[in-house]
Amino acid sequence: MCGRTACSLGADNLRRACAYRDRVGQRRQPEWIRAERYQPSYNKGPQSSGPVLLSRRHLQQDADSSERVLMDMRWGLVPSWFNKDDPSKMQFNTSNCRSDTMLKKSSYKGPLLKGKRCVVLADGFYEWQQHSGGKQPYFIYFPQSKDAMAEGKDGDEEWRGWRLLTMAGIFDCWEPPAGGETLYTYTIITVDASKDVSFIHHRMPAILDGDEAIRKWLDFAEVPTQEAVKLIQPTENVVFHPVSTFVNSVRNNTPECVAPIELGAQKEVKATPTSNAMLSWLKSSQEGSPQKKENDLPRWKSQFIHSPSPKKTSAGLLQQWLGKEAEPAAKKRKVLALSCADGSGYNLLASLPGSPDKALRSTSACRGGVASASDHIHSSRLLFSFPFFFVY
Length: 392
Fold this sequence. Notes:
Structural class: alpha+beta
Order of helices and strands: EHEEEEEEEHEEEEEEHHEHHHEEHEEEE
Largest sheet: 5 strands, antiparallel
CATH architecture of the largest domain: Alpha-Beta Complex
Oligomer: single chain
Pfam families: SRAP
Number of domains: 2
Number of strands: 21
Distance between the termini: 41 Å
CATH topology of the largest domain: hypothetical protein yedk fold
Strand order of the largest sheet: 5-1-10-11-15
CATH class of the largest domain: Alpha Beta
Protein name: Abasic site processing protein HMCES
Family: Belongs to the SOS response-associated peptidase family.
Number of helices: 8
Shape: globular
Organism: Patagioenas fasciata monilis
Keywords: Covalent protein-DNA linkage, DNA damage, DNA-binding, Hydrolase, Lyase, Protease
């Protein structure tokens, strides 16, 4: 199944990351529809809104069916025939749609046969492994190139940042009985889990791997339903890492949600190279960005990721993912709690070596106040009020 995702790119970079080539080979970026409604998040759950790709012809009858648009839709399909005045009164869960029943259940069969196919976008998705001690969350995503943090400039021909996970979905349009704005909603199609991730969960999203698969799924005028559904298959082309149970609460929305952890350690963010790397990404994503919306949420990206090892579940994968050797267990670190006093920053746990006064070389002010430091809880912990920093 798929019950939680992350999508942290701002609206402009999301559009750039979805660039494609049209019928004549020209590189294009999909137009945003209602971009102002899109909100990046490290922790999206059902009933929240999320970005999807769809054919422009769904919105404009004379448009080329291969032309793509981006749109923010609510997660959890509300069928067009639903006759209550409040979609929240639906008594069944439509956040996921099983591939083996999508042409049988009326909620999905109707829109699917009408060509209402979409691609749900995310950095990756979360899945929880059930075990005797509880549930362990994992973050699952496409393999990334080693230069995945290099987003480039707006004028660059190709996006060189994070490769978005592209999941097959079905959408529908619901009209309130008493009149009002049309509600666009979607569901994510699920399939049997591939071998490598089946130890986490027996289901996974139907992932469209590559632009040709995306093209066929979206172009409902050229690719009929019976051909399109052949694309709905498990894929082995994913990697994953365990994350903190911090992600369990959908109210938590910081980079800590996606930060790798070492299993067997305490679930809180500990003194590992991973936590320092995440903090460096936060700093690099904030500096020099002219876009306020994207500044509202640090972007998830990595300068360390490269092709995954065959053994995707080993601790060695995390070390390769970071491009560093594991830190010796004997090396002790102190923990700092970081936040903005005016609420404009993010509450993060940072693990830094040595004493706190030597760990931070530069700081920055919050949007609504000046950076400050004060003793907090213990002498070895400080509360800093600023949204980003650099660790040497």
